[in-house]
Task: inverse folding
């Protein structure tokens, strides 16, 4: 590794944010890869990455001694194949969310990371969204007291995105995009033990799954949660999130420049709300990559390893199953 992390980025649409993240934190982008020649050329030209570092076939990178880590930013269905290939070739991997679409795939990815001893980080990027980092800090500080209800939504109009790999029945909106809201609630409130969900399919005729789902969940004896996912919504993208505690309430999202905090005075009366300014950065790939790089260079655990990514997938799958069966689902113990 010498003194610089050498990284390959595979998949150059959202993956371009990772190229920027890597360059922004001083890593060396040793290779970029995309099987689409136009996407490869565009990324190469945009970031000044020469033709000798551009590849159409990721397998040509597996044996390269001068590559320490790979970012896997290809369609969800390919995460397992590429992540396992790079891990087994001795590379650390930052894999896009959702970790994978099936329990079998997440298990194999965890096994590949365990057996290779290489780090696997899942890009649950909301943990780097400035408003949500601040929310996590306020919860940990006790400013809200004990949490009794947490809710988050993933409302994102996919009308122009649907088709191709996103129309795969396995790529249900709850796991594809809703995994952001699920992961955020898990980060803030811990692991849910049971979920119950309803879904409707009214807005996106081109996908074979519900485009709106609401799930309620129980985290323990005294904490409840709710996730709403709409991928056909007629509004701007938002992840509006409200955190209710015994001493206060926080309202925030990933697209607003301020968050609203309610707390109580010494008589437990609700005070005037405080507006907290916050940077709007819903896709903070720079901080995410920096966190991955620091874990490797400092040999520390990554923030969201395979087991963490798998728990989020498990909750999403339970929500989808509940919405189909009409039954509450216990969340299976994470592997
Ligand atoms: N963190 C986020 O907020 C966020 C946002 C968007 C997408 N994503 C995730 O990023 C991943 C990519 O999404 P996208 O929107 O960029 O998809 P996309 O379909 O727009 O782009 C995927 C790219 O991967 C390339 N590709 C496909 N198979 C390949 C292969 N075998 N080898 C090399 N290149 C290959 C395609 O040619 C394409 O350029 C998905 O897992 C998605 O869920 C995450």
Result:
């Amino acid at each position: 590794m010498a003194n610089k992390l050498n990284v390959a980025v595979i998949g150059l649409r959202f993956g371009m944010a990772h190229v920027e993240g890597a360059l922004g934190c001083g890593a060396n982008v040793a290779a970029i890869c995309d099987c689409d020649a136009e996407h490869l050329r565009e990324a190469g030209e945009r970031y000044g990455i020469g033709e000798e570092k551009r590849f159409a076939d990721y397998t040509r990178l597996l044996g390269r001694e001068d590559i320490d880590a790979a970012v896997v930013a290809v369609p969800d269905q390919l995460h397992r194949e590429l992540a396992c290939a790079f891990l087994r070739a001795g590379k650390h991997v930052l894999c896009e969310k959702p970790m994978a679409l099936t329990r079998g795939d997440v298990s194999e990815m965890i096994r590949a990371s365990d057996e290779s001893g290489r780090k696997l980080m899942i890009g649950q990027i909301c943990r780097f969204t400035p408003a949500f980092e601040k929310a996590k800090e306020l919860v940990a500080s006790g400013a809200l007291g004990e949490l009794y209800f947490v809710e988050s939504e993933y409302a994102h109009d996919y009308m122009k995105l649907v088709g191709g790999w996103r129309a795969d029945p396995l790529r249900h909106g709850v796991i594809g995009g809703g995994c952001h809201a699920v992961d955020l609630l898990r980060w803030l409130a811990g692991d849910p033990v049971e979920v119950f969900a309803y879904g409707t399919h009214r807005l996106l005729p081109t996908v074979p799954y519900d485009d709106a789902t609401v799930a309620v969940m129980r985290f323990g004896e005294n904490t409840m949660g709710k996730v709403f996912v709409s991928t056909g919504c007629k509004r701007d993208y938002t992840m509006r999130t409200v955190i209710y505690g015994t001493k206060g309430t926080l309202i925030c999202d990933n697209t607003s420049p301020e968050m609203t905090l309610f707390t109580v005075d010494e008589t437990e009366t609700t005070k005037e709300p405080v507006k907290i300014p916050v940077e709007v950065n819903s896709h903070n790939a720079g901080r995410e990559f920096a966190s991955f790089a620091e874990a490797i260079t400092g040999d520390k655990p990554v923030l969201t390893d395979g087991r963490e990514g798998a728990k989020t997938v498990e909750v999403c799958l339970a929500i989808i199953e509940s919405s189909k069966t009409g039954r509450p689902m216990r969340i299976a113990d994470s592997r």
